[in-house]
């Protein structure tokens, strides 16, 4: 029997304005479970709530299951700011057995290939999780399915949109049976040199998930993408991301190891040529790269070249990539390390 999730789908038509590439590849995206409340505008029914204790007041806001800066509120001179970023969406369970165990089937959101399965819950905050690679018109995107109770596919498997790949669970730190859910992401990748970079900077924290570690994956707002595509089935991911606000820019020294323009050539501004002194990469507040431009600025290491003005310390606004106030804004140690990943091993 065809699932409810399979009945609700969105279509992406990818058109990359790059020389030598053809347009017209159609890719269907389907919701990964039977929960389709997103399309009815019913947030409480779609998103799994979080448990919050803010200034002694306990609550269970469903908004914490959304994508974005939706967790860890902090009072500032500008009002309440949510400082913790949630890179995916948490989809609540619809089906449980008599003991309360989740039974929801998890399915691939699109055709692709399984590139990673983590079967050991303690190896990641995602618990047991799957990563599927989708190759769309010259670029690779990665859907991630976390907190699974069981996994039905193996690395290397080819999967079809709507195919059963797992069962929802609550593996991963801080979860319990009542909060069982599917954590879903759709990501871009920073670099295939991630493992070497990680081992150089995080020697005391083993990486069990190779290049499919969450640090190396930049998640876009997949719920908003689903909704946008229902309004405009011809919308492309590059077009979708072009509507994101540029929150900061970083200048990078020229490097033969700079993969981002090769992985996502649509990020290069029209007419860009590799003739200037450095590259300037524009980022959304989420940390998703949006645009790559040549720059005359001469740099020997990653340097912050622009940040949107704010009276709030940037560490609370940028996942600790940037720190400081106003004119004193600068890349944090972590921010410099993350930017070095883009050109590693230089």
The gist of it:
The chain is mainly beta and 346 residues long. The protein is built from seven helices and 21 strands. It folds into two domains: 4-40 and 91-228, Glucose Permease (Domain IIA) (Distorted Sandwich), CATH 2.70.70.10; 244-341, no CATH class.
Draw up the topology in text.
Layout: H1 4-7, E1 9-14, E2 25-30, H2 43-46, E3 52-54, E4 57-59, E5 68-76, E6 79-86, E7 89-92, E8 105-107, E9 112-118, E10 128-136, E11 139-151, E12 158-159, E13 164-168, E14 181-189, H3 194-201, E15 217-219, H4 222-231, H5 237-242, E16 248-253, H6 260-263, E17 278-283, E18 289-295, E19 303-307, E20 322-323, E21 330-331, H7 333-341
Antiparallel strand pairs: 1-2, 3-4, 5-6, 7-14, 8-13, 9-10, 9-12, 10-11, 11-13, 11-14, 14-15, 16-17, 16-19, 17-18, 20-21
Described by strand count, sense and barrel closure, the largest sheet is: 9 strands, antiparallel
Count the E strands. Answer: 21
Average predicted confidence as pLDDT: 90
| Helix/strand order, N-terminal first | HEEHEEEEEEEEEEEEHEHHEHEEEEEH
CATH topology (level 3) name of the largest domain: Glucose Permease (Domain IIA)
Q: CATH-wise, what's the superfamily of the largest domain?
A: Glucose Permease (Domain IIA)
Strand content: 25-35%
- Helix content class: 10-25%
CATH class annotation of the largest domain: Mainly Beta
Q: What is the overall number of helices?
A: 7
Count of all domains:
2
List keywords for this structure.
34% strand; mainly beta; four-stranded antiparallel β-sheet; single chain; Glucose Permease (Domain IIA); 346 residues; 7 helices; disordered N terminus; nine-stranded antiparallel β-sheet
């Amino acid at each position: 029997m065809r699932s409810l999730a399979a009945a609700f789908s969105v279509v992406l038509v990818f058109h990359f304005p790059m020389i030598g590439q053809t347009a017209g590849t159609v890719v269907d995206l389907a919701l990964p479970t039977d929960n389709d409340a997103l399309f009815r505008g019913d947030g409480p029914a779609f998103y799994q709530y979080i448990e919050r204790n803010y200034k002694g007041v306990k609550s269970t806001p469903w908004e914490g299951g959304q994508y974005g800066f939706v967790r860890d509120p902090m009072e500032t001179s500008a009002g309440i700011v949510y400082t913790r970023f949630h890179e995916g969406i948490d989809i609540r369970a619809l089906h449980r057995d008599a003991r309360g165990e989740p039974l929801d089937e998890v399915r691939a959101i699109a055709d692709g290939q399984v590139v990673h399965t983590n079967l050991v819950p303690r190896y990641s905050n995602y618990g047991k999780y799957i990563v599927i690679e989708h190759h769309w018109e010259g670029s690779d995107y990665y859907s991630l399915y976390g907190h699974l109770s069981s996994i039905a596919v193996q690395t290397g498997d080819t999967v079809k949109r709507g195919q059963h790949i797992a069962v929802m669970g609550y593996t991963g730190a801080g979860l319990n049976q009542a909060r069982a859910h599917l954590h879903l992401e759709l990501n871009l990748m920073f670099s295939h040199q991630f493992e070497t970079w990680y081992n150089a900077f995080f020697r005391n924290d083993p990486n069990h998930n190779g290049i499919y570690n969450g640090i190396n994956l930049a998640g876009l707002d997949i719920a908003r993408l689903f909704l946008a595509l229902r309004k405009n089935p011809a919308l492309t991911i590059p077009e979708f991301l072009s509507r994101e606000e540029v929150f900061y820019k970083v200048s990078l020294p020229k490097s033969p190891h700079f993969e981002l323009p090769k992985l996502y050539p649509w990020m290069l501004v029209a007419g860009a040529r590799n003739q200037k002194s450095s590259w300037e990469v524009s980022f959304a507040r989420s940390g998703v790269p949006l645009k790559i431009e040549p720059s005359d600025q001469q740099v020997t290491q990653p340097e912050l070249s622009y940040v949107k003005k704010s009276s709030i310390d940037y560490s609370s606004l940028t996942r600790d990539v940037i720190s400081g106030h106003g004119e004193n804004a600068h890349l944090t140690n972590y921010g410099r390390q993350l930017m070095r990943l883009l050109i590693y091993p230089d």
